[in-house]
Amino acid sequence: MKRISLLCLSVFVLVSCVSKKKYIALETENGQIKSELQKTRVAKEDLETKFDLIQKRVDEYNTKIASLSDLNTELSKENDSKMETVANVAVISEDTKKSMRKTLNHVDPALVAGANTLKDSMDLAVSYNLTKSLDTSSLNEDDDIAISIDETVVMISISDKLLFNTASYRVSNKANNILQKLADVINSEPSIDVMVEGHTDARSINNAKVQDNWDLSVLRATSVVRKLQNEFDVAPEKLIASGRSSYAPLASNDSREDRATNRRTRIVILPNINKFFALMDSTAKI
Predict the structure, then answer these.
(1) Read out DSSP for 205-264?
(2) Pairing state between β 239-243 and 153-159
(3) pLDDT tens, 63-116?
(4) Which residues contact 80 (CB under 8 A, 6 or more apart)?
(5) What single DSSP character describes residue 172?
(6) Which of 61, 107, 110, 262 is the least buried, fewest Cβ under 10 Å from its Cβ?
(7) What is the C-alpha to C-alpha distance for residues 101 and 218, in angstroms, rounded to an integer?
(8) How far apart are CA 277 and CA 123, in angstroms?
(9) What is the DSSP letter of 87?
(10) CA separation (Å) from 13 to 1, 7, 24, 37?
């Protein structure tokens, strides 16, 4: 009986010793794991701190890049809006010059080749766009209508035969088409003022209604102005009527053809050239 009890006690002690060793080993392993975990946490926090610093620097660089990009955009806009003097009489922006170059791609190359100055190019581009806007394709441009630029103004010269009957100052209905298109151009830009000039040939005239060529030239100008105001809704404050009689001829008055050339009505458009070109560029049917 004693022998059995001693045996059981020995087994118990042995089992207890093995379990304690495993426990200590597990405790040691657990301590090591906790230590490694703590190191990992410290390393993670250190990495997070470094990442935050790096992210801050990246954000700062991105802000600088965005600022430089904005500055570049502003400088580009400023450059595009810079004004350049043309022939000492007009100023145009870089944007207008770009639009002009685009328009000149559609102009007769022979005409472009003859444009030796910026003013020559501006004349060609505005004339092209205005011709497109007025759509003069149904007219004989050499005889009926001519478009040019002189100094800071755009001039549209319309022949007498297109606007009036001989020796009359009443505007013919056949002029309605061109006057409507002209009114559309005038009405589309508030900055435009228009002077209508009447011109006659040198032959004298005197009747119950017209005393002389001064009378006739002024009456023709006022007739066109009234028609633009009353029938085509052009604001009267934008219109100026004037007569030049026979004292600003384009040709001599020695032949029928020359006299016909001198009988004309000139529409003088007084615009801000940048606004006017932008208007023409957007309305022309290229």
Answers:
(1) ---SS--SHHHHHHHHHHHHHHHHHHHH---GGGEEEEE-TTSS-SS-SSSHHHHHHHSE
(2) unpaired
(3) 877 776 665 565 455 444 444 444 444 456 677 777 778 888 888 888 888 888
(4) 93, 94, 95, 98
(5) P
(6) 110
(7) 39
(8) 10
(9) T
(10) 19, 10, 17, 36
pTM over 0.70: no
How far, in Å, CA of 198 to CA of 182, rounded? 16
Q: What is the pLDDT of residue 86?
A: 44
**Helix %, strand %, coil % of the chain (to 5):** 60, 15, 25
Q: Rounded to the nearest 10 degrees, how much is the dihedral formed by the CA atoms of 169, 174, 176, 178?
A: -100
- Token pair in block for residue 8: 């059981």
Residue identified by tokens 């060529």 is 213
Distance between CA atoms of 181 and 138, rounded to whole angstroms?
Answer: 13
Structure tokens at 109: 């190359």
Distance CA(248)–CA(151), nearest Å, equals 17
Nearest to residue 260, comparing CAs of 90, 143, 114? Answer: 143
Tokens of 221: 């100008």
* 265 vs 148: CA distance, rounded Å: 14
Nearby residues of 178 by Cβ (< 8 Å), 6 or more positions away = 134, 136, 139, 145, 158, 162
- Say how many CA atoms lie within 13 Å of 286 toward its Cβ: 19
Please report where in the chains the tokens 């703590």 appear, as a residue: 38
Q: How far apart (Å, rounded) are the C-alpha atoms in residues 285 and 141? A: 18
> Residue 162: which residues within 8 A CB-CB, separation 6 or more?
139, 144, 145, 172, 174, 175, 178
